[in-house]
């Protein structure tokens, strides 16, 4: 049995009094890439926020285990080094240069008020180069296009060098070559033992992962290998058979079904 890197155990989450997640249990194996998919409003981003510790405790039941320890028991700094996060629509750092934004990923590694080390600079450089964002390192995030800023934010998440990386719609605004690059980056991370969990709407990319968690109306309805026909059947069902999963050149694809048949 592979070890679990991060797990949601019987998680129920509310916003005000509205239930959003209903008793979700999902265990993410170490050194694997899992995509979370499901219809709009299914609770994908909410589950990712819970996994990351961003959900208010008073509106949460159940818990998250990170490397076998309850998330809330992790010392903050250690947790920030162990768990990296790429969220959606982040604007808090808009006035900073791309370089400084990527350097924020190194904060958990730096002593209080200390300057970045040579290693911090080297890691930031490598990460900005990996996401092809190095060329605009001196430009403020606010001046970049949607895809350009996404690549800087990805570099920031990579710069943490965490063992667990959670990403919410990481492909937002990325053109196809950069989507392919993102997949290569994820595959390289996973090959080094990193656990990657990504919420994705691009189902054909999501199917390239190792495993797939399917959410519907705040519940986990399927969790299985991306190559498993049972996963394909669950995926088609959750999207009301408006997609079909097919194989082309050894890759699984989700094709829209435009004809009623
Ligand atoms: N702050 C909030 N106030 C009220 N309802 C919320 C809030 N945040 C999320 N919700 C509701 O929780 C449900 C799950 O939202 P969530 O963003 O997790 O879904 P999702 O699966 O990521 O959706 P999408 O695919 O559209 O991004 C939705 O019905 C949403 O309207």
Range of helix content: 25-40%
Low-confidence stretches: none
The CATH topology of the domain at 1-67 and 200-261 is given as Rossmann fold
- Would you identify the CATH H-level superfamily of the domain at 1-67 and 200-261? P-loop containing nucleotide triphosphate hydrolases
Instruction: Give the count of helical stretches.
Output: 8
**Element string (H = helix, E = strand):** EEEHEEHEHHHEHEHEEHEE
Structural class comes to: alpha/beta
Adjacency order of strands in the biggest sheet: 6-7-8-3-9-10
Mean of pLDDT: 93
How many angstroms does the end-to-end distance come to? 41 Å
What this model shows, in words?
It comes from Comamonas terrae. The protein has a domain of 129 residues: Rossmann fold (3-Layer(aba) Sandwich), CATH 3.40.50.300. It is 31% helix and 30% strand. It has eight helices and twelve strands. A six-stranded mixed β-sheet has the order 6-7-8-3-9-10, with helices on both faces. The termini are far apart. The chain binds adenosine-5'-triphosphate. The site of adenosine-5'-triphosphate has 11 residues, from strand 2 and helix 1.
């Amino acid at each position: 049995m592979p070890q679990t890197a991060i797990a949601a155990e019987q998680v129920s989450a509310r916003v005000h009094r509205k239930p959003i997640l209903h008793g979700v249990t999902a265990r993410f194996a170490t050194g694997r890439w899992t995509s979370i998919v499901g219809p709009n409003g299914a609770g994908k981003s909410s589950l990712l926020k819970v996994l990351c510790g961003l959900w208010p405790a008073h509106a949460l039941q159940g818990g998250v285990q990170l490397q076998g320890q309850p998330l809330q028991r992790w010392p903050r700094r250690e947790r920030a080094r162990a768990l990296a996060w790429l969220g959606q629509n982040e604007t808090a750092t808009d006035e900073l240069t791309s370089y400084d934004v990527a350097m924020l990923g190194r904060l958990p590694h730096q002593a209080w008020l200390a300057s970045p080390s040579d290693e911090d600079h080297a890691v930031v450089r490598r990460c900005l180069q990996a996401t092809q964002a190095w060329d605009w390192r001196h430009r403020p995030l606010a001046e970049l296009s949607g895809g350009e800023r996404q690549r800087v934010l990805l570099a920031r998440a990579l710069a943490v060098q965490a063992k667990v990386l959670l990403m919410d719609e990481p492909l937002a605004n990325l053109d196809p070559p950069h989507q392919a690059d993102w997949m290569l980056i994820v595959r390289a991370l996973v090959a080094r033992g990193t656990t990657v969990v990504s919420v994705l709407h691009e189902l054909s990319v999501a199917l390239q992962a190792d495993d797939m968690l399917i959410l519907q109306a705040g519940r986990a309805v399927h969790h299985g290998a991306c190559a498993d026909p049972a996963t394909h059947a669950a995926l088609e069902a959750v999207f009301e058979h408006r997609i079909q999963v097919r194989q082309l050149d050894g890759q699984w694809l989700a094709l829209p079904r435009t004809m009623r048949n």
